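Tip: read the tokens left to right.
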């Protein structure tokens, strides 16, 4: 399906474009960001950003959908998207460091999850955090994710497996949420 643009009160989510490479590389080439993510290497170059953007198509399955998070007036500030996992769709996200601490990710994740559950028949979305990532865990809890266990997940930026708190958001929890 063609990815839509999703509009919230402070943010807009839109499909990636080739000219996103410069801000993408700037914000991801930060160990404070990539060290919290499983699949982003560090350092992260402009060539890495361009190569990844070439893999993104506007016509894509919802469980492979990626959205650039834009703040009107400030441009591209971060990213939220899905990829297929062994149990079902996995959601992942990050914000560039200048944009932390203002509650933007809760709004972005909420927009994205509303779209995902409306568009698909998925009974649940999976996620989790490396064990030290309390800010991200707080966001997931507020969205209705619950902890399902622990695992060891390779963190590309660190080059080692890191203990991971696994989480799951069911469609029922999403509908019942109070945020
Ligand atoms: C994690 C990240 C997305 C947070 O986004 P954000 O919008 O800046 O989140 P905020 O700082 O506004 O905090 C969100 C919540 O976490 C809480 N929080 C923040 N830091 C915390 C900490 N150290 N301990 C406990 N709670 C914390 C906030 O109080 C807030 O909770 P509330 O909504 O109940 O008030 C952002 O820091 C980021 O991109 N980090 C690097 C990449 C990353 O970690 N991605 C997620 C991988 S799972």
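Filled-in amino acids:
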């Amino acid at each position: 399906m063609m990815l839509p643009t999703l509009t919230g009160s402070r943010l807009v989510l839109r499909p990636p474009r080739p000219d996103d490479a410069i801000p993408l590389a700037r914000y991801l080439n930060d160990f404070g960001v990539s060290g919290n993510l499983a699949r982003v290497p560090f350092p992260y170059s402009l060539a890495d950003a361009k190569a990844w953007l070439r893999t993104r198509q506007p016509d894509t399955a919802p469980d492979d959908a990626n959205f650039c998070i834009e703040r009107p007036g400030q441009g591209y500030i971060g990213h939220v998207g899905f990829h297929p996992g062994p149990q079902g769709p996995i959601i992942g996200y990050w914000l560039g460091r200048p944009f932390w601490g203002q509650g933007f990710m809760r709004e972005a994740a909420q927009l994205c999850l509303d779209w995902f559950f409306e568009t698909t028949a998925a009974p649940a979305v999976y996620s989790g955090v490396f064990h030290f990532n309390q800010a991200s865990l707080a966001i997931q809890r507020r969205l209705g994710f619950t902890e399902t266990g622990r695992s060891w997940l390779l963190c590309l930026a660190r080059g080692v497996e890191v203990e991971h708190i696994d989480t799951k958001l069911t469609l029922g929890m999403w509908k019942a949420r109070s945020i």
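DSSP finds six helices and eight strands in the chain. Residues 6-176 form a domain with the Aminopeptidase fold (CATH 3.40.630.30).
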